[in-house]
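A quick aside before the break. I want you to see a complete sequence-to-structure record at least once, exactly as it would be stored in a machine-readable document. Don't worry about memorizing anything.
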Amino acid sequence: MARARASLFDILTSRGLVEGARILDLFAGSGALGIEALSRGAESVVFIERDRTAARVLRANVAASGFGERAAVMVQSSARALPFLARRGDVFDGAFIDPPYGTLWADRTLRELGLGELLREGGWVAVHHRRGEAPASIYATLVAFHQRRIGDAVMVLYRRGGHGQSGFFKVRNGAIAEKLQ
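That is the input. The structure line, written in C-alpha cells, reads:
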C-alpha cells in the first residue's frame, strides 16, 4: 500500500491537484491517504469511516499528525455520509475511494459522486481496487483519465467534467486507449 500511495501522490502532486484542495477520504481506515494529502498541502480533509474501532485509530492518527484543525472525521457509512454532505452544501476538489476488496462500494460510490454535486467541475477521484474488480471508465460526469497497476492492486483516477469534454481519456488495460470527443 505504501508503494501505491507514493505512486498516487506522485501523479496528483505533479498535476497540482493536492495543494490547497478540499478532499474527501471515503473508507478512510487509518487515514493514511488523507493525512498524506494534508502533509502535501491540502486545505482540508473530511474522513469517512463507518467502523468505530477504525475511526478511533483514525482520530488518534489525525491528532498525532498535527493536522486536527484541518480535518474532520465522520463515523458513518459512505452511503449515509455522501447525501448528508450534499445537503450541507459541501463541495470537494478531490476524493479518495479505498473500499474493502470484494465489495461493490467503489462502483456505488463512483456512481453517486458522478451524479451528484459533491465534486467541483474538474474535481478528481482516486479509486484503489483489486485487479479484476475494475470499475467502469465513465460514471455520468466522471471520466477515467489515468490507471496504474501496482502489484495486485490498481489505482484509477477520474476527473469530473462530463462526457466528451476535451482533456479526458478512455483507459483500457492500463493505458490511454482514446481521447474522448
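Two observations worth writing down. Residues 163-181 have pLDDT under 50 and may be disordered. Residues 2 and 32 are 9 Å apart (CA to CA). We'll return to this after the break.
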